[in-house]
């Protein structure tokens, strides 16, 4: 099987400071990769370099495109990259306000993504929007409401619907459950697990919450000062951490 | 089906002066299809450690852990994940689930992960929960609020939902009453009859004598204890 995403030697510096250094990994279809580490460890920098929001200084991000097979995203033209970001990729921001259009209705937020890939039939677009609102458990009678009238958890679920409606193959998520009530978090985790399983999604999830990665990620990378210090099966890394930093991280979690 | 040789492991505690704790030396055992082997030895001798290494939950420093065609000690994470999905089941002592997911879905999940249809997976889950005497009115609730014994039975139902060719059982009859203990022992016997290779920890000696064909004393593999 060809990896969906191959990352080789990805490096990003902020002047003399290291954002992330020499990060390499493969991600296969249907796999969820978690990235953990404390604030400033470089995990968000890495995610933004992968997603093309930041221009990395060195390295390759090779994506298995539908038409041409594996291609280095960093060597693509800007229009090609934007097309990829609209069709095969999705990015779920920590703050739903960064990923939603707050002045547009819920249905419009979902429909807009469909129109960006060429959908034009109003009835079809609205139908698909309704279907996705239902999948993320937003009542159909809220379709014409704006996200500003939604709770934080609903906004996050709407952002997920907006991102997944075009059937992407790779989803980047930055702290998708951050800032949410624990009961809302649980519901979102269950939703994401179901979507990963049913749509065969691959995902890269950045979080500082070890409980979230244990339930969501198949594999885990631990970052410290821009470097990946440990990687492996999620439960193995959490239960038998090899690196001193991971041992510290795992032993520092408060027991609820 | 399960074959272990020359298996060794140390724990290195980097934040406690780099202390090295040897926990396993040259462990070796094998489990054939249709056979149930019990690990015995005092608390702390390394029974659970050995089981966790077979499951890929703990890393091995040296040696081989062959499960079916795969050497768990050497394989890539995604190969180990595929092995866990289709071939190697593990009933731990603790249930770890996404909060607020209904019991029926918790039990059906291993089948859904294998691509079994929703309807069929749920039928199997209903059958197992019924056999394990979990009242039907609880099936739509999350098991996180259940009693210890109920959680253990949900865990067992989940572990037996798919007919794994190899199974690891960590005290499957602990905290169960006589009737439910009997159900679990029957499930184990059925799994053996269909050819599953089972490696388990049973503190319940009567249960061990009934379902296990052999015992392996892990004290032999405990560094500093072996003669």
How is this structure best described in words?
With 256 residues, chain A is of the alpha/beta class. Chain A has two domains: 1-88 and 168-256, P-loop containing nucleotide triphosphate hydrolases (Rossmann fold), CATH 3.40.50; 94-167, no CATH class. Chain A is built from ten helices and ten strands. In chain A, the strands form two sheets. Chain A has a six-stranded mixed beta sheet, sandwiched between helices. Chain A has a four-stranded antiparallel beta sheet with strand order 2-1-4-5, with helices on one face. In chain A, helix 4 crosses helix 5, helix 4 (106-116) packs parallel to helix 6 (152-164) and helix 5 (122-135) crosses helix 6 (152-164). The N and C termini of chain A lie far apart (41 Å). The relative contact order of chain A is 0.17. Chain B is built from seven helices and nine strands, in the order βββαββαβαααβαβαβ. Helices cover 35% and strands 25% of the residues of chain B. Chain B is an alpha/beta fold and 227 residues long. In chain B, helix 3 packs parallel to helix 5 (148-160). Chain B has a five-stranded parallel beta sheet, sandwiched between helices. Chain B has a four-stranded antiparallel beta sheet with strand order 2-1-4-5, with helices on one face. Chain B has a single domain (30-60, 75-221), classed as Rossmann fold (3-Layer(aba) Sandwich). Chain B is globular, with a radius of gyration of 18 Å. Chain B has helices at 47-55, 77-86, 103-113, 118-131, 148-160, 178-193, 205-211, and strands at residues 2-13, 19-31, 36-40, 62-67, 70-71, 88-91, 166-170, 197-201, 214-217. Chains A and B meet through helix 7, helix 9 and helix 10 of A and strand 1 and helix 2 of B.
């Amino acid at each position: 099987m060809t990896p969906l995403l191959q990352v080789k030697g990805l490096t990003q510096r902020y002047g003399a400071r290291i954002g992330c250094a020499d990060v390499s990994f493969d991600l296969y279809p249907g796999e969820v990769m978690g990235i953990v580490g404390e604030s400033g460890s470089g995990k968000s920098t890495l995610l933004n370099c992968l997603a093309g929001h930041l221009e990395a200084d060195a390295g390759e991000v090779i994506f298995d495109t539908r038409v041409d097979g594996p291609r280095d995203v960093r060597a693509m033209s800007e229009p090609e990259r934007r097309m990829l970001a609209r069709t095969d990729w999705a990015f779920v921001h920590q703050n739903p306000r960064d990923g939603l259009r707050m002045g547009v209705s819920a249905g419009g937020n979902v429909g807009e993504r469909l129109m960006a890939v060429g959908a034009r039939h109003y009835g079809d677009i609205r139908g698909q929007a309704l279907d996705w609102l239902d999948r993320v458990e937003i009542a159909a009678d809220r379709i014409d409401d704006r996200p500003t009238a939604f709770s934080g958890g609903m906004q996050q679920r709407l952002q997920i619907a907006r991102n997944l409606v075009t059937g992407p193959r790779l989803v980047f998520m930055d702290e998708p459950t951050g800032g949410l009530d624990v009961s809302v978090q649980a519901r979102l985790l269950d939703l994401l697990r179901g979507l990963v399983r049913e749509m065969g999604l691959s995902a890269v999830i950045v979080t500082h919450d070890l409980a979230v990665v244990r339930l969501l990620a198949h594999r885990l990378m631990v970052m410290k000062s821009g470097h990946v210090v440990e990687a492996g099966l999620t439960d193995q890394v959490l239960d038998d951490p090899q690196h001193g930093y991971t041992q510290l991280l795992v032993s520092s979690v408060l027991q609820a | 089906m399960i074959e272990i040789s020359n298996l060794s492991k140390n724990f290195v505690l980097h934040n406690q002066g780099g202390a090295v704790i040897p926990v396993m030396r040259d462990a070796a055992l094998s489990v054939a299809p249709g056979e149930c082997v019990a690990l015995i030895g005092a608390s702390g001798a390394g029974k659970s450690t050995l089981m966790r290494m077979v499951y890929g939950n703990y890393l091995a420093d040296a040696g081989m852990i062959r499960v079916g065609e795969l050497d768990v000690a050497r394989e890539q994470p995604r190969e180990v994940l595929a092995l866990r999905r289709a071939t190697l089941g593990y009933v731990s002592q603790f249930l770890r689930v996404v909060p607020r997911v209904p019991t029926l879905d918790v039990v059906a999940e291993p089948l859904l992960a294998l691509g079994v249809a929703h309807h069929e997976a749920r039928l199997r889950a209903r059958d197992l929960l019924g056999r394990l005497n979990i009242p039907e009115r609880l099936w739509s609730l999350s098991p996180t609020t259940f009693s210890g014994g109920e959680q253990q039975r949900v865990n067992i139902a989940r572990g037996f939902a798919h007919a794994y060719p190899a199974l690891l059982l960590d005290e499957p009859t602990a905290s169960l009453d006589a009737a439910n203990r009997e159900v679990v022992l029957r499930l184990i016997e059925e799994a053996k009859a269909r050819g599953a290779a089972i490696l388990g920890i049973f503190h319940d000696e009567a249960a061990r004598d009934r379902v296990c064909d052999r015992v392996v004393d892990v004290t032999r593999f405990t560094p500093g204890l072996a003669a």
